[in-house]
Design a protein that fits this description.
This protein is α/β, with parallel strands linked by helices. The chain has helices spanning 10-25, 36-45, 63-66, 86-99, 113-120, 127-138, 144-162, 169-172; strands at 51-55, 74-78, 103-109, 175-181, 188-191.
Amino acid sequence: MSHESCNLTADEALERLREGNARYLNASHAQGDVSPQLRQSTFREGQHPYAIVLACSDSRVIPEVIFSAGIGELFVIRVAGNVVDRHQLGSIEYAEDHLGCNLVVVLGHTGCGAVDAAMHHEPYGTVKFITDEIADAIGNETDEAAACLANVAHSVRRIEESRKVRTDEAEHGLRVIGALYQTDTGEVQFLE
């Protein structure tokens, strides 16, 4: 991966994610570059991801694999239910400001256990912090698919609202979008 990654526009980064997901749909093995040469290159020259992906911690949702990405291509933040708090916001801000990423994708998925827990179970312990956030996002929604989409939209709004209007946004084309990963088929639906 070259330093060109961080210079992609949001539209170019989104197209690269789409192409990577298309390759993944027909793959039987992970396709990203994890070679020793790339490990050494990113060690010496640093990381230059082309997109930020906020995804659920679900073990079936692996953004680097889903988008056929290798070392240094994606800046991935994973948290159950793809919820957003100050830790995730700080990570996103870092990747935007210091790594030059122009695209943030909130990647939810079908069959999300955190959404199910918020809809159907009495949460316990610190899990309640996550399910309360999701419950706020989905309101009285009873359809799980619609609830997953509402939860993604809520996280997108939280990210957008948290960011101060930056003078360079118009120039660089910074974008925050939602996406839904179909756990059964592997397809990603971008919610533009």
